[in-house]
Write a structure and sequence with these properties.
Chain A has twelve helices and twelve strands. Helices cover 45% and strands 16% of the residues of chain A. The first copy, chain A, is an alpha/beta fold. Chain A binds a DNA duplex through helix 2 and helix 4.
Chain lengths: 330, 330
DNA sequence: TTATACAACATTAACGTTAATGTTGAGATA
DNA sequence: TATCTCAACATTAACGTTAATGTTGTATAA
């Protein structure tokens, strides 16, 4: 034992074995220039003494923390928490730990998270930014630290990012409803993620046009207040709308909850299609058809992207658009 | 600029201002022995140069990382992700960042998480352990690092922990169903968290006894396989059971989903009461009555407990049991 | 036999920060 | 005037690890 809060250090092992600190370090990292015998002996002693490497010291010296930061909206939103879980799994495969920060979709909280992450010398940052002109993003860009945008895309972006084909997703959602016999459709967004929302609606409308539905049969609304949402839904239903495309699964479920508590039947009065296919990971909510953006693949790709950038910062930036598919349920 | 991955260091600021590294350090930390004038000047220069403190170096020297580890089951389970969010908020208030690890309820993954956390020199660890005899716990106990058990309790435990009054929660759930006119009740657990589960059922039965229900009117089952769960539910319903107490909200919802997809009505064929009152944080699922264990308070208390222990390791250990209440919905 | 090569270690310095202690000069005190 | 005090800084060393470079003794090649 020594000073390090009673924790065993290389120093202690060195004293115990008679070798130098450096030799102990190399032995524990299975490096060359150490005889098989001493290597095993040192490792044994380290185990016996309960040695745990001090990552701070190691990172400070080596310049690598083997840590990534994930800055997401909120862990209260299953979309983010599922993504977080997947990111952790994929990162873990490569030996990375993940520090999770929540921006609560607030720009200053997000900025603090970035500062914090930078301060902790993370090797890379994964972020679903509040917006594309958030101060957090400019700080990231000028920091020189590798970062990848998750589930966010804006035309003309030069930042590394992984997102899914929103337009195609909207198209598939539209076609699914049309194939189900629905001729009067609407898309609903609660909390607007601008680009995705627009793209999804664009695809949605494309499907409608393709099917020959008149423009006035296709509605769109972006509402946050539950009361106004319910009012809008009632209006739509009264107008004969029977198919609803929700911006995402989470919003779909809260819409369904709203409708059911108001006495409507889903499906029945309204058929709802979601987006993200969170049901592939979250088992408990009501099954709904959804656009699968393959979050697992997104996580995998993002980790791979940041890994490569950490390894070679001079690589050309990449905007990776992942394919989507429809998962039909019920 | 210097070597630190192109990042500005105290050294750089020292050169720029003509002061020594130590003076710069003290100025940036607003310590004494620095004239107001130089303090402001140094801080200004630091800001201009885009200085970000290197937490690794700082922590290595000071022995404090201002970081907590949270080791939870999985971010795919809203109970844990909501708890994580709350923990982060409370920790943030005190200037702590949180490293999140998922054990996936596996003992070896959990052990790895603990090792990882210790290796990163976190100031304290919050954990919802797989079990009370998991190797992770013994490692924690012998590590000397402050830790607090979250939402877990076992009779006779000496570890610091924060949990809720499971027995009382079960009692309230039982009484709620009985007050609703139900005379034939059951409790269902999917994934068994042994102590909590037993306690909740004990309280549940107490309510039943108190109301004079005969023993055979009160059932219990612990099943994981959805098919067997559904079969059991059908059997119960056929036997006249009308009130169901679910181990937790998440399980309640998946039970409801099972029932509804099998053509049953909830409530109607079966009234379901959950536990945790996750609906207070998660807005999208179907509203159900639930036992509120006040997760926010649990998070607050846990952070306060670990803060005090970090500050004074000699404090007596504490097992904090939080009160519960019923939240009736629909 | 002597130079060479190499395995197996040791030595040194550094990562960026901070705690502990030292120094200095100006003003206050006797 | 000599001593003391203290504000405002500087110097030194250390946190635990690792990269770069030195050193040694033995085995091999010429």
């Amino acid at each position: 034992m020594s000073k390090n809060n009673g924790r065993v250090t290389l120093q202690d092992i060195a004293r115990a074995t008679g070798f130098t600190v450096n030799t102990v370090s190399r032995a524990l990292k299975n490096k060359e220039d150490i005889s098989r015998e001493t290597c095993l002996k040192i490792q044994q002693v380290a185990r016996d003494m309960g040695y745990v490497r001090n990552f701070l010291a190691s990172s400070l010296r080596s310049g690598r923390t083997k840590t990534l930061a994930l800055i997401a909206g909120s862990m209260m939103n299953p979309f983010y928490s599922v993504l977080t879980d997947l990111i952790q799994q994929e990162a873990g495969r490569l030996g990375y730990s993940v520090m999770v920060f929540c921006s609560r979709e607030e720009q200053d909280t997000e900025l603090q998270a970035v500062e914090n992450a930078l301060s902790r010398q993370v090797d890379g940052i994964l972020i679903t930014p509040c917006s594309f002109d958030s101060p957090a993003l400019s700080m990231l860009r000028s920091s020189g630290v590798p970062f990848v945008l998750l589930s966010r895309y804006q035309e003309g972006t030069r930042d590394d990012c992984v997102y899914c084909n929103d337009e195609e997703g909207g198209y598939l959602a539209g076609r699914h409803l049309i194939d189900g016999g629905h001729r009067h459709l609407a898309m609903l967004t609660h909390h607007q993620v601008v680009f995705s929302s627009r793209e999804r609606f664009t695809g949605f409308r494309r499907a409608c046009r393709e099917a020959g539905l008149p423009e006035e049969n296709v509605r769109f609304a972006c509402l946050e207040d539950p009361d106004r949402i319910l009012a809008q839904l009632k209006e739509w239903i009264a107008e004969g709308i029977t198919g609803l495309f929700s911006f995402c699964d989470v919003e779909a479920w809260s819409t369904i909850t709203l409708l059911e508590s108001a006495g409507f039947r889903v499906p029945g009065d309204l058929t709802v299609v979601g987006f993200d296919n969170i049901l592939g990971y979250l088992k408990f909510p009501k099954p709904i058809s959804s656009i699968d953006c393959c979050l697992q693949e997104e996580a995998r790709a993002a980790i791979e992207m940041i890994r490569r950038r950490i390894h070679d910062p001079s690589l050309p930036q990449q905007q990776l658009c992942l394919p989507v598919s429809l998962v039909s349920r019920v």
